[in-house]
Amino acid sequence: MEQLTQFAPIILMFVVVYFFMIRPQMKRAKQEKSFAAELKKGDRIITKSGMHGKILDFSDKNNSVIIETGAGKITFDRSSISMELSKKMNEPVAEKKVLEKK
């Protein structure tokens, strides 16, 4: 029993690290993966490097997406699309549609 009480702080520390660091990171990675899988043609996106564009086509062979920008067509990897920036950019459009319907 004495050995268990000696290791209790270490065990507690691992539990805290898991619930405050590892678990949220795994949850976020899962959300980003589902976001990338749910993309469709015509969606407006922002890449992690800051490039704005609209999705034209997908390439399942390379796991990439072709976007149209002001400079032309560019191919990006699906993982380079920023989930939070793309969602922020598309939120005002959704709110405007709701206001127009009323």
Task: Write a structural description.
This protein is 54% helix and 23% strand. The chain has a 4-stranded antiparallel β-sheet. The longest helix has 36 residues, at 2-37. The protein has 2 domains: 1-38; 40-102, SH3 type barrels (Roll), CATH 2.30.30.140. It has 102 residues and is of the alpha+beta class. The protein has helices at residues 2-37, 83-101; strands at 44-46, 52-59, 64-69, 72-77. The chain contains 2 helices and 4 strands; from the N terminus they run H-E-E-E-E-H. The mean pLDDT is 86. The N and C termini lie far apart (67 Å).
- Determine Rg (CA atoms, Å): 21 Å
Secondary structure: number of strands: 4
Number of helices: 2
* Outline type: elongated
- Share of β-strand residues: 15-25%
Offer a concise description of the structure.
With 102 residues, the chain is of the alpha+beta class. It contains two helices and four strands, in the order αββββα.
Present the secondary structure layout:
Layout: H1 2-37, E1 44-46, E2 52-59, E3 64-69, E4 72-77, H2 83-101
Antiparallel strand pairs: 1-2, 2-3, 3-4
Question: What are the key terms here?
Answer:
54% helix, alpha+beta, translocation, four-stranded antiparallel beta sheet, elongated, 23% strand, single chain, Sec translocon accessory complex subunit YajC, 2 helices, SH3 type barrels, 102 residues, 2 domains, transmembrane
